[in-house]
Amino acid sequence: MGGESLRVAVVSMKEFSKVLVTGGAGFIGSHLVNRLMGMGCFVRVVDNLSSGSLENVKSWLGDSRFEFVRGDLKDLGVAERVVDGVDAVFHLAANPEVRVAEVDPSVHFRENLLTTFNVLEAMRKSETAGLIVFFSSSTVYGEPAVFPTCEDYGPLLPISVYGASKLGCEGLICAYCHTFAVRGLVFRLANVVGGRSGHGVIIDFVHKLQENPKELEILGDGSQSKSYLHVKDCVDAVLHSLRHFLDEKKKVEVYNVGSLDKVDVKRIAEIVGEEMGLEDLEFKFTGGVDGGRGWMGDVKTMLLSSDKLLSLGWRPKLNSEEAVRLSCCELLGSMKVDD
């Protein structure tokens, strides 16, 4: 299948010309699109707009180097059409809501595993697409016994259906890369925050405080502590490590991407209250489930080791608290513009 010629086709960023971004109208995807367009790439975006928004990429509509396709990658025919002619695929299309599995676990199977399988199948048949860059999650680790957690930690025992689906996607990518002429770069992301984010603890707190500025309900016992990374640091990390990967001969590489510290949910609540200018704010903790978790499948503590990325010369510009604060400011700013 046209693979061997292709695997050599994309060997440096200078030759990195035509790319597909799945889920490119979403939060992280749209920020990545901006960077890729700034690099001079031809960028094709496919998105079913279930969680993304055309507003996120509207500045590129009409640009001769940009193409938007509204389509669903659960349809193999759609996957084959959008993969056709591109050098590389940045695969972000997925359902980002971890908790949706409490109601319907099949959502993560369809939106994460099935779409990834279809993208890989389309790449296997393609005469051009030889590289997949996959956006995975820290949830694949489950509840590790070692912090910070390195990429070679194991066994990987996710505690949520979302984490399991991401780990399954990683397995599919690894298998295709060793069986067919495809290379894969996998990023296990910490909690990524920033402008255009449509879900997560920050936006939940803001909405709750808009309804009741005196009291904030916090799921769990407040001790949940995790790493938060601003989306611009995330995109920087991806493109920085990609340059190194293209110079190597590995079939598959995995990188953690996170800040170098963590912050607990109570402190996040305090930061949101400060940025909203609220005084005498009371916190009401629900107590949570299963030892203080916000919900079943919620990982209480997460701190990734980014040493592998740091060794390449990348370093996040913001720590977790700074990322949370800036993200809150960006969210509140966008709400004022909408008003």
What does this entry look like structurally?
With 339 residues, the protein is of the alpha/beta class. It has helices at residues 3-9, 27-38, 76-83, 106-125, 161-179, 201-211, 231-246, 265-275, 307-310, 320-338, and strands at 18-22, 42-47, 66-70, 88-91, 131-137, 183-189, 191-193, 215-218, 225-226, 228-230, 252-257, 263-264, 282-285, 301-302. The protein folds into two domains: 3-193 and 229-257, Rossmann fold; 201-227 and 261-300 and 317-338, UDP-galactose 4-epimerase, domain 1, CATH 3.90.25. The strands form four sheets. Strands 3-2-1-4-5-6-11 form a seven-stranded parallel beta sheet, sandwiched between helices. The protein has a three-stranded mixed beta sheet with strand order 12-9-14. Mean pLDDT is 92; it is low at 1-9.
**CATH-defined superfamily of the largest domain:** NAD(P)-binding Rossmann-like Domain
Tally the beta strands: 14
Summed over residues and divided by their number, the pLDDT gives a mean of 92
Order of helices and strands: HEHEEHEHEHEEHEEEHEEHEEHH
Instruction: Quote the distance from N terminus to C terminus.
Output: 53 Å
Number of domains: 2
Which secondary-structure class do the elements indicate? alpha/beta
Shape: globular
The order of strands across the largest sheet is 3-2-1-4-5-6-11
For the record, the CATH architecture of the largest domain stands as 3-Layer(aba) Sandwich
Question: With helices defined by DSSP (H or I, 4 residues minimum), what is the helix count?
Answer: 10
- CATH topology annotation of the largest domain: Rossmann fold
Q: Which CATH C-level class of the largest domain is it?
A: Alpha Beta
